[in-house]
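Kindly go through the entry underneath: sequence plus fold tokens. Please state briefly how this chain folds according to its tokens.
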Amino acid sequence: MDRDATEPRVVVGVDGSPSSYEALRWAVRYAGLAGAGTVDAIAVWELPGLYGWSAPAVDMDVDEDETRQKMRQELTEVLGADAAEAVRTHVVHGNPADVLLRAAEDAEVLVVGSRGRGGFARALLGSVSQHVSQHANCPVVIVRSEKK
């Protein structure tokens, strides 16, 4: 990922879930208030079974350009056109927690969503949220989606 180490950055994980959209909104608001120069929205794709003993039963051809275009469209829908233009998008292959931790090594803050499902499960963090909160070199903000 291209980045200027002297410019304060906010890194946010985006996976298409309502909580990741809330995290994106939070990250953009925070960047504006804190004077952070850049918001990097990171979408991570990983092929299920790729690291296991069996071959994956999925299509290995992921169209990254199409994924970037879809991500840009989603950012525009979530943030509006002007705010979305100020966000840098990255589509990266790998383990989501590992990719986010590497991307946030020199960030001011890492923002991720927490998928609440209701009842007791709602109080639990997702595996990526939990992992990055325990291993990041910067502060981590975990944002829940609003109840509908």
Q: What stands out?
A: The helical segments are 18-34, 64-79, 81-85, 96-103, 127-135. Residues 41 and 89 are 5 Å apart (CA to CA). The beta strands are 9-13, 38-45, 87-93, 109-114, 140-144.
